Amino acid sequence: MAESVTDLLRQAEVFSRLPEPALRKIGKILRERRVAQHQVLFRQGEPADALFVIIAGRVRISIAGPGGEEKVLAFLGTGDVVGEMGLLSGETRSATATASTNLVVLQLRKVDFDALLTNNVDLMRELARVVARRREATRQRAAQEAEDGQGRGQGMVSVLFAPRGGAGTTTLTTNLAVALAHRAPDHVALVDLNVLFGHVPLLLNLSPRTSLAAISPVSLGQMDRDSFEFYLTTHAASSLRVLSGVLRPEEGELITAAHVRSALELLRRHFTYVIVDTARGFSDVNLTAFELASNILIVCTADRVGIRAVTESQRIFRELLHFPGDPLQYVLNHPSPYVAVSPQQLGQTLQAQFVGSIPFGGDTPTRAALEGQPMVTRWPNSAVSKAIVSLAARFEQQSREAVALSGALAPVSS
Ligand SMILES: Nc1ncnc2c1ncn2[C@@H]1O[C@H](COP(=O)(O)OP(=O)(O)OP(=O)(O)O)[C@@H](O)[C@H]1O
Ligand SMILES: [Mg+2]
Question: Quick one: 91 exposed, middle or buried, by C-beta within 10 A (0-12, 13-18, 19+)?
Fold first, then answer.
C-alpha cells in the first residue's frame, strides 16, 4: 500500500479525529483483506463479528425485500466504514454488504475491538457520534422517500462550476458530455447556462436554431420530449443533445430561474445524464441549477487565486445555501503548465478528494476548440481525454448507484 495505515484510517470519518498513538494502536490490530467483485462481505442476520474500513473499491449495502429481492440502501467507498453498528450494539447484521467492485478492506475483528474499546475512551465517544449521525441520515432518507417517492426514473443532473474564470469548465463540460454520449447514445443532454458568451456550440461546431430564452417557462412545463426536441441541437457525431441558454448575449436577461427549473426538470425526465455548463457567480440561474443538481462538480485549479475562490465558494455553499445531502464534488484541471500547489496539499486545503484530475494538455484543447471537435474525439489517446473518459465512467457508476437507490427492487445478483 502506498499510504501508511494511519493515513488510511484518518480518511475514515470514525477515526479521523483520533490522535496518532491511538491510530497506530488500531493500525496494529487491523488485517488487510481482498474481496472479489460480487462476493459478500457479510450477510443480513449473521452475527456481527468485524467492522471494515474500505481502502479501495465500492460496497453495496442492501436488505432482502418481502419476496427475497434485493433492496439497495447505500453504496460506500474509500474511507467509509462498514458494519460498525452491529459491532457496537452486539446485534446481528441488519443488512448485507456485497463487493460491487473488487475490494480492499481493513478488517477489525470484534474480539480485538472490544479489547481496544475498554481502554480507549476517545474512540468510544467518536464511534458513538458517527453511529448517531448514520442513524439520523437513514431516518431522514426513509422519511423523504415516504413523502415524495421521487427520484424514481429520474436522470442525473450534474452542474459544472468554477468560481474563477478560465478554469476549463466549458472544455470539461463539453468533453464529459460527449464521452458520456459515446457510452449512452441518445441519453445525454448538455445545457449551456453561460447566458452571456456561451461557446459550447462553437466547441462542437453546432449552430443552434433556437434557445431556452425563446420559450416561456409555462410552455416548457407542458412540453413532451418530441416538442422539446425542436429546441435541442443534436451533435451528430456523438448523439449528444445541446440546449443553449441564449443565442445572443442580449437575451441573457430573458433567462429566469423558472426557465432553468422547468428545463432541467423536463430534461431529467427524458435523459439519463443532464450536464450543465455554468458561468461564474452565484446568480439566480446558477442557484436554481445547483438546487436541482444531483452533483455539483467544482472545477479547481492549482493556483492561489483558484484555491481562494474555491474555499470562499465552499463557505457560501456550507453557510448560506445548505443543500441537502452532500452534492459537492471536486475535479482538478490544469489549464496551464504551472503548478503552484501539489494535489495533496490542495486536497488538504480544500478538505476534499478529487473525483478526477485532468493534466495540462498543451495547446490541444484550444486547437480542438478551434476545429470545433471535442478533445475526446479528436485526440482520444491523449492524457486529457483519458482523464475525462475515466471521469465519465465514474459518472456512469454514480448514475447506476442512484438508480439502484431510487428504490427499484432489483433481482439479487449472484
Ligand atoms: N487541461 C487543459 N490543458 C490545456 N488547456 C486547457 C485545459 N483545460 C482548458 N484549457 C484551455 O483553457 C482555456 C479556458 O478553458 P474554458 O473556456 O473551458 O474555461 P472556462 O472555465 O469555461 O472559462 P470561462 O470562465 O470563460 O467560462 C481554453 O483555451 C481551453 O482550451
Ligand atoms: Mg466557460
Answer: exposed
